[in-house]
Amino acid sequence: MATSGEETLEAQTEPPICGLKRTSSSLKRTSDQSSLVTATNSIVNPPEFDPDLAHTLSASYVCTFLGTNISNGLSNTEAARRLQQDGQNKIEGDKGVSLWTIFMRQIANSLTAILAVTAGISYFIHDFVEGSVIAAVIAFNIVVGFVQDLKAEKKLQALYSLSAPTCKVIRDGQTETVPAADIVKGDLVALSVGDICPADLRLANGINLSADEALLTGESVPVQKHPERVLNEGDLALGDRSNIAYSATIITRGRGVGIVTSTGMGTKVGQIASDLRAPSAEQLEEESKTGLSRLWCKLKNRVKFLLGLNDTPLKTSLNKFALLLFVFAAILAITVFSVNLWNLDGPVLLYGIVVAVAVVPESLNAVIIVSSAIGVKKMAEGNVIVRVLSSLEAVGGVTHIASDKTGTLTEGKMIVQKVWLSDKSDCKVTNVTDPHNPTSLTTTWGRKHPPSGEKSAENGEETSNALSTVARAFLDTVALCNSSSVTENSDGTWKTVGDPTEVALQVFARHLNFDKERLISDRNADLVAEYPFDSSIKRMSVIYGAESETEVTSYTKGAIETLLPLLDITEENKKEIIDMADTFADQGLRVLCVARRVATRDQLATREEAETQLEFLGLAGLRDPPRPESLGAVRQCKVAGTTVTMLTGDHIKTASTIAREVGILENGETPTNNPKVIMEARSFDVMCNEEVDALPQLPLVIARCNPRTKVRFVDAVHRRGGFCVMTGDGVNDSPALKKANIGIAMGKNGSDVAKEAADMLLCDDNFASIVVAVKEGRRLFDNVQKFLLHLLVSNIAQVILLLIALAFKDSHDMSVFPLSPIEILWANLITSSPLAIGLGIEEATLDVMSRPPHDLKVGIFTKELIIDKFVYGTSIGALCLATFASVTYGMEGKEGLGTDCNEDFNDTCNVAFRARAATYATLTCLLIVTAFEAKHFMRSLFNMYPGEKYSVLKAFTKNKVLLWGAVAGVCLLFPIIYAPVVNRVVFKHQGITWEWGLVAAAVVIYVATVEMWKALKRRFKPSTLKRCGTSGTSETSASSVV
């Protein structure tokens, strides 16, 4: 039988879990409670029962409260009545996300609404070409977003898989198998190894009972259960309630019987499911209102949803900006109508709409979706799967990462960390790349007797000394007194079976060539007797000996407090062992004592004889080690201005030790000298929100966490104006994953529930991959600014050009378009979009993880971006206007603009059409140049990669998407201008000749203007240049910091 009781043994070195003083929250007991139960198993005048306090009552008292019999259970009649009354033992899950909901996500943004209005007006005035183009843009935006969300969205039904399909119950004194959905409060449930606990149980009895609660409490090893205990504090962490078995946990050892205290949504797992489906703040606000106030609140929330004003920070900023553009567009249209004295005939109305269309960046949504999709692909290459597309751009602005410990910052597997032997030699295990692979360990022996081939800690030199006698005996014991197995597969991988603690001991022994099977074979040893782990005495022993020999050896391991009295040593030696065990405990290690006894078979005939007069061999310190990458990842987060907090269900000593090792805490920080930074969940939970907000900083380590503690922490971050990422792998992490701004779940070892609650998944369960996610989010944010600059510069230039060009009148005193509607849409959609997408996939700057998170209050529209877009836009608008005026007055003067040249070509429109073509060519060329200038807000186009040869050439050629987008824009320019029919009928312009000189002059002037502006910024803001770094590939990746 596999023994895993050592988890409890090691826990003895931890500080006390709870005191002996009963809290006022405990249930009040009465002296005559036994009289409440009748012979028919029904309860008379039942007192109020709180399942959350069942651990503070004995099993018999719980039976009293629940009206059941501790031996015979409920009657079948009573069970049927309660099932009818309380309903089935099921977790109520969501029914999946509807296609309609996913569709509404795509249209719920301001830009889509504005484009829809614009398309509608275009159709209304019979401008079907323009209306159809805008409608196509809307459809493209919706389809791309819908497909992406549909691929990522899954049903949140994982909690169903956690429920046991059947279970064994005791009713009317008989054990029977029933569907788990049919058990009720008061049922007696029989548990054995491998069973999934069907409900929350107050254990009534058990033998060597342990349960794996990792997915619920975060404990890294199975938890030993003690049904006989009555705990004294009502607010104990879930992991400390050793007399309770929780729904969905797995029995790993032993057997027992428990009384059902909660079923369905009343269980801890059910409460988590409820938290996942908790109403949003908007829904709670609506429910708190009545009458007209509630109606107004509903209307306000629906409008905010449709306009995308409650989305991620970036999308909310863009949607607000789109609304601002809409208002601006309306003002411009009114301006056009006013100039024309509100004579709203066809041409005037069309011109007003053209000006309004020029304001709107039609391709913005498409560019964001495409850039995000490319970012999703890059994230997948970095082992991060994005489930919710909007989370990609949001993750770059995180200020706090609240991380689970077990399986996230740590391996989630036990290893032997330190060994101290009775001859005072010691061994340290380092560089563990795979806790299950004996060849992946590095052992360093100190003081004396290092094994052959290992290095001494004292001189670091190779030695040929063999293992000491004590070391060999120690390794014999941990290998033989062990029920686990460690085997190598044919492909070179390793397979382990058994309790995590025993596996760690077996791996350690195997690393030093003490393989259990080989030891038995070489010595012709037989298993004489095996005394499995017993929770009452907290130790395990086995006896091996050759059949031909009279002497045999008893190998024992167990808790120090139980083995110490059995050791054949002096009191002075016992004190030394206790001191060393305390040292191990202070380092967050779980401690095992290892001993043996050599005697004749007759002298070891019983367990009591086999476990007395033991020879002390040494201590083993085990733990769940940090991932090798975690330290570098945490350091990267600190450099990036992101605070990492550990929220764990483990004990505070273990948690603080791991936190120091991964860099969350500084060396020397302990719960004693810094209690506000390192605290237990109960200390955090009793603080009101005002007290939490008054702390100088939020705790960096919170131990013994329950799910609600994690949710409270996320709320505290939000109240401080922070943007929080929660990482985790267990069911217990799910509510916080849902509550956090971005939830990141472990994809390999994470529970299905955690995955469904998360926005992102880490395929390799590597905390360092979070650095990849944050880096990619920041890269996307930077690139959004770049392509926003490019897109908005085009809009500003067009608005300036179209407004001032109102002064250019034809012979009928009608304003002449300097650009036709199709030219504007072509420039905004066809020319600018590929360039914007190219900017959207620009590589991260070198300093992307060396600067603080961007200010979420400021958002995407920083002061620098706003100023730059007006400088660039004004320059392009002025140069385009100069080109239009030069052609107009350089050929025939004002009279050359003809008659009705806004609609069709006629003999009088030669000058107007040539001027329009030259203006369009100027706008196209300047937009292409702007795309390359926008690669960096500060650096010169001619020195984009300082110190590198041919820097200017690299600026044009490194980003292939941007390069080919520019080439396509130039190549398409010529057929658009010169192709018959297309030029005059569709684009309302015609071929040009000498006007190309004006275009070239405009490009030279524009480049000079932008370079002068950047030079001024570098002169007066040199610190910004240092902060911005270069546009090269960042080498500071997750892999380079570990």
TrEMBL record:
In this chain, composition skew of type Polar residues spans 431-445
**What is any one GO biological process for this UniProt entry?**
potassium ion transport
Q: How does it sit in the membrane?
A: Multi-pass membrane protein
User: Which SMART domains would you find in this protein's record?
Assistant: Cation_ATPase_N (SM00831)
Q: Which UniProt keywords apply?
A: ATP-binding, Cell membrane, Ion transport, Magnesium, Membrane, Metal-binding, Nucleotide-binding, Phosphoprotein, Potassium, Potassium transport, Sodium, Sodium transport, Translocase, Transmembrane, Transmembrane helix, Transport
User: Which reaction(s) does the protein catalyse, per the Swiss-Prot or TrEMBL entry?
Assistant: K(+)(in) + ATP + H2O = K(+)(out) + ADP + phosphate + H(+); Na(+)(in) + ATP + H2O = Na(+)(out) + ADP + phosphate + H(+)
Domain Cation-transporting P-type ATPase N-terminal, which positions?
A: 53-127
Where does the record say this protein resides? Answer: Cell membrane
Instruction: Provide any one GO MF term from the record.
Output: metal ion binding
Query: Which cofactors go with this protein?
Result: Mg(2+)
EC class of this enzyme? translocase
The UniProt annotation puts the region (Disordered) at: 1-24, 431-463
Chief localization = membrane
| UniProt-listed Enzyme Commission number(s) | 7.2.2.3
Q: Magnesium among the record's keywords?
A: yes
- What family is this protein classified in? Belongs to the cation transport ATPase (P-type) (TC 3.A.3) family. Type IID subfamily.
Q: Entry's PANTHER family?
A: CALCIUM-TRANSPORTING ATPASE
The name this protein goes by in its record: P-type Na(+) transporter
Q: Which organism is it from?
A: Zalerion maritima
At the highest ranks, the source species' classification is:
Eukaryota, Fungi, Dikarya, Ascomycota, Pezizomycotina
